[in-house]
Amino acid sequence: MVLDSEVEALGACVPVSREGNLVLQNDALVFDPDRVEALGRPVPRGLMRGLLRGVDFSYPMDESPFELTVSDAEVHKGRLVLSGEAESLPVG
Fold first, then answer.
1. CA dihedral of residues 56, 58, 59, 62 (deg, nearest 10)
2. pLDDT means per 10 residues in the chain (92 residues)?
3. DSSP string, 8-69
4. How far, in Å, CA of 28 to CA of 18, rounded?
5. CA pseudo-torsion sign 19, 23, 28, 32
6. Cβ atoms of 24 and 32 closer than 8 Å
7. Model pTM greater than 0.85?
8. Dihedral angle computed from the Cα positions of residues 66, 69, 72 and 74, in that order, rounded to the nearest 10 degrees
């Protein structure tokens, strides 16, 4: 999975790309980056760890308006696919 964004540095917008895996942990979707690029160039791993220290790439799944149990999360062709069960869905 790839997350693209821009970061302001010295008054300029710098494109940043993060590549990694999306996993399900403790009822949350968690993005675990293992490669970072800035301006299209790889960021060294030591610098990457320092830049990402304290950054939370998780999304809690317990904020759904209905009862939801997610058992798997995968990325396919630009789509996030969640597998699991949903209860108390409003019909109509």
1. -110
2. 85 90 84 90 88 83 73 79 77 69
3. EETTEEEEEEEEEEEEEETTEEEEEEEEEEETTEEPPHHHHHHHHTT---EEESTT-SSEEE
4. 19
5. negative
6. no
7. no
8. 10
